[in-house]
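Bug: token stream looks shifted between consecutive jobs. Job 1:
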Amino acid sequence: MERRPVAHSRSIYRGPWRIDITTRPGAPRLVSQAVLARSAGAALDSAAAPRPASIGLILTDDDELTGLNATHMGKGGPTDVLSFPLLPPQAFPVHPGGPRPQCGSSRRVDFVLPPGRRLHLGDVVISVERAIDQAEAGRGGQTGDVRWSPADELRLLVTHGTLHICGWDHAEPAEEAAMRNLEQRLLVAR
């Protein structure tokens, strides 16, 4: 019987956050999982995500992202990162450029969990293959024209995907500018 490679999973605790990192077979290791957990934790802190909570990071390849992109976004071909939030944007504080609450409504959403349980915020799926290609071809960064290390590109994708989990988006110019600014601050802070 042929043995298939299995994914490697690890949970890293950073303050109120648990970051569950799954690395699919064949996905290159560009940086330590601790660095990726730090990037996700910093984005969760900056977005004032409900705490304590967990988030999943799945590091994979173009094939998996191509399938997910077709199934969930209706688009052909691979993409670099997809986020699957489990909470509505209203579960997170209002952020610069983001949607404002309707008059008379509250953005606060309270979740009651059993003692000792964490709220799972969602999962971020990243093509490490795409991160490497974009960085090495000079198509990385927020503007798609940055040549930098694949490790920096992967950190950006973790940060970007985590902010999407927390209700941030870049469909509107004001929110895109705020999101890009926050990503840049988080990447420089390391």
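Job 2, same session, no restart:
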Amino acid sequence: METPSYLLEFEKPLRELAKELDSLHQRSLEQNLDLSMEVAAMEARIQQAQRDIYTNLTPWQRVQIARHPKRPYALDYVGRIFEGFQELHGDRQFRDDRALIGGTAFYRGQAVMIIAQQKGRDTKENITRNFGMPQPEGYRKALRLMRTAEKFGLPVITFIDTPGAYPGIESEARHVSEAIAVNLREMALLRVPSIAIVVGEGGSGGALGIGVTDRVLIFENSYYSVISPEGCAAILWKDRAAAGKAAEALKLSAATLENLGVVDEVISEPLGGAHNDPEQAAAGLDAALQKHLGQLRELKPTALLDARYERYRHLGVFEEDGVVHQ
């Protein structure tokens, strides 16, 4: 794996090793020397450093990878895994929210409904996408598409990637909390299979607004949490700089969520994150989708509803007076 051009703070030791490797290549060319043994040794050092860094990531470091500006977003996966995506617009009440997109597509020959939170790649697109933070009309558009999917018997596949719903005054004025609450209720009652995939950030009710599904999948370096680490740190430690400590306390990493039963499967990523090999990441998602969607297709609507009820009724573990409850 090549050293990435955009490096996170904990990845910076790789840059120094990469500079040493470049220096060896330059010396070899300029002085016509055979430095193949030295180059091979340096490449081995870089590979070992990568393994050491990426196999011992802290929850906060995984949050940073989940926010990596080159990480694949929902439309990147849609373009690789699905065919014939046709975007549908508007909530039929106020306007079209570009932070939350949706539409029909084909997955392995079967029609599905896709609903996804989408971020931007540059400043202009991020403003258009509102940095992936949907407003009330986004959640109402999602609900409209879910009801359309139910009407035509289409499985619903959602992509979660948001720091949270937009908390601005205009969003509150149009009742964002009510829009999310209605989605939670209606998703619990959908009579078609549903799968959510956390591809990056899964922050607060903004993520949950499209996340009450039969199965929840999460990428290895994504996170799913009731609040962002910075928000938690500001509340509990009165200091947003304590975000690393908050990330640890929130138990928001994929492996922990799987152990707690919050998510159903963790999708492995290429070493260093999905942005290092989007094709491999998409292949992992494709395999997981094929498996879970195949299982859900076998269930009748009443069985889907019963299983979904049981899933959320027994979600999580808590301890009270020394007794563990689930």
